[in-house]
Amino acid sequence: MMKRNFMVLLTAVILCAGLLAGCGGSASSSSQAASSETASSAASVSGDVKAGSENGSADLDAIVAQLLEANPISNQFEIAAMNIEYDFGLAADDVVSYKGVKSNDNGDAGLVLVIQPADGKSEAICQQLETYKEDQVAFYGNYAEFAQAQSNVENAVISGRDNLVVMVIASNEASGDINQAVDDVMNTYAQ
Predict the structure, then answer these.
(1) Fewer C-beta neighbours within 10 Å, C or N terminus of the chain?
(2) Which of 131, 112, 125 lies closest to 162 in space, CA to CA?
(3) What are the angstrom distances between the C-alpha of 14 and each of 8, 44, 57, 118, 165?
(4) Going by C-beta distance under 8 Å and a sequence separation of 6 or more, which residues neighbour residue 99?
(5) What is the pTM of this model?
(6) DSSP H or E segment with residue 131
(7) How far apart are CA 157 and CA 170, in angstroms?
């Protein structure tokens, strides 16, 4: 009887070890598949961008850098094609190229996003960014500890012209005039 209990226990341990090993293997292959999918999504959002390359043009890099001077963002992560479509709700066909960063800190909603819209899509992009803004205000409104982030989002600046759309949400670290920074960018780069 003791031998039988030992065999049942040993079999259970072996099965558990096999399940754990199987889970670990699929997680890494899922991660690789997700990375591959993100790279291909990035290529589909902007026709100018090849998979694995950095999105945006040199002009967009300069605009983002100029906006970050007035709005330094802590713990930055770069906005990817997946964010453009799923977070901001923008149609891939409406966006020619984009560049931006967002704060990766829970209580800091800081954002700098620069978009080169497709012909005739500037207004549609601005409207969708307004919807994103409203959603973020509602999200942060659920948490008393994120009152500063909610206020920052409520005061977000969205500006668009035919060839350029900009959205800036002040970071908790922002010390410059966000409105003036956006006006300067639009006067310099937009048509």
Answers:
(1) N
(2) 125
(3) 10, 45, 54, 57, 58
(4) 55, 56, 60, 61, 63, 64, 79, 113, 114
(5) 0.71
(6) helix 122-141
(7) 9
